[in-house]
What we know:
- About 45% of the residues lie in helices and about 15% in strands.
- The chain has ten helices and five strands; from the N terminus they run αααβββαααβαβααα.
- The longest helix is centred in the last third of the chain and has 19 residues.
Amino acid sequence: MLHHLFGYEAKRKRCLRKAPPGVLKEFLSIPFPDIGERVDAIPILAVDFETTGLSPAKDQILSIGHIGIENNEIRLASACHTVIQTCGDLAEENVVIHQITDDIKYQGESIRDAVEDLLQALAGKVMLVHFARIEKSFLEKACVQLYGMAPVFPIIDTLMIAKRRLDKRSVPYDPSELRLFTLRERYSLPRYNAHNALSDALATAELFFAEVGKMSGRNAPALKSVLL
């Protein structure tokens, strides 16, 4: 009964009734995957945002990268990287970290076009991220600004999967062990350049496969066991 009232699908339907016509309503009109399904049988979109800072209240999305996972495979042909036209000039530390200059971002897409492209790619899928607070809070802020409301997004967070695994050991660990780079090293995954939205989305997708392989037996776990 509680799942029926408060689950993702119930929230999606409530948001659908309130959504304005357009891309957001189209996104919400497509049912989310069944949380009882195995994770190797559902469509997933690995997503990463690079931002000008960590505060949604004052910072902006600088770039979005995403790549699809279907039939338990990373679909490289689906890879997408979008630079966004942020307001104002970028601080020097942003340019150093993200390697995106003002000249590059001025040629980027508007935040509306970038968010609508993401929603279209995300329709009917579960969003996969590492450290969900960034993507969730910034995407919700963008949707409120664009559509007057923040929809529900089913999310898998590889950081939380790793944290749950480490917590079960009942021994202290350094929070730095939960970093994307550190977790990937643990599984001997290849090194990619950090702070690029697309390479970080791909890195998260690969880490997800490694973490699921660690937690599952003969069968992959159900989606509900890895959702936030």
